[in-house]
Amino acid sequence: MGKVVMYSSVSVDGFIADDTDQPGPLFDWLLNGDVPLDDSGAVKVSQTSYDYTRPYWDQIGVTIAGRHVFDLTDGWDGKPPGGIDHVVVVTHRPPPEGWDPAAPFHFVDGVEAAVAKARELAGDRLVEVAAGDVGGQALAAGLVDEVRMDVAPVVLGSGKRYFGSVDAQHLLEGPDVVQGNRVLHLRYQVRR
């Protein structure tokens, strides 16, 4: 089975969005290079960030996100972001009215069920868990193997925390560090 990776861009002070759910300059690093990161050509990064990020993206089979993110993005119009095969949505509510049941989205109740479903769908590919409340719950439940963060040079001051409401200590190994253009890519293995 593939490993479970918690991931997001994050501010230096540990936030993935401001109080109004806006990322602000957290994703500027995705627009400040000259190497296209995807087929759209809209996302361009430095060569260093490309060499770090593209192989990771290519390994992702399934993304897990919370219902809040799903609703904020309008369910990505039924198409998983970044060419990912499936999205597992952690929610206590049914899919939205009129949702296409053929869309590769799976609505499950609880983070444990989400990780189990994602692992089944991903096979030997990576399962990516969006940072925030769902990612924090997965980490607290011992379901995360690796923590990745792209640290942007900004202090947001308040907002949505990278680790959600995690309130217990979790030890990590590393970090592995790659410095891109206006971003610091960090990778930590979760200590078992």
UniProtKB/TrEMBL annotation:
Residue ranges of every copy of the Bacterial bifunctional deaminase-reductase C-terminal domain listed in the record: 112-170
GO terms of biological process kind: riboflavin biosynthetic process
Taxonomic superkingdom: Bacteria
Matching Pfam families: RibD_C (PF01872)
Annotated TM spans: none
UniProt-listed InterPro entries: DHFR-like_dom_sf, RibDG_C
Alphabetical list of SUPFAM superfamilies matching this protein: Dihydrofolate reductase-like (SSF53597)
A molecular function (GO) term: 5-amino-6-(5-phosphoribosylamino)uracil reductase activity
Name of the protein in its database record: Deaminase
Organism this protein belongs to: Actinoplanes auranticolor
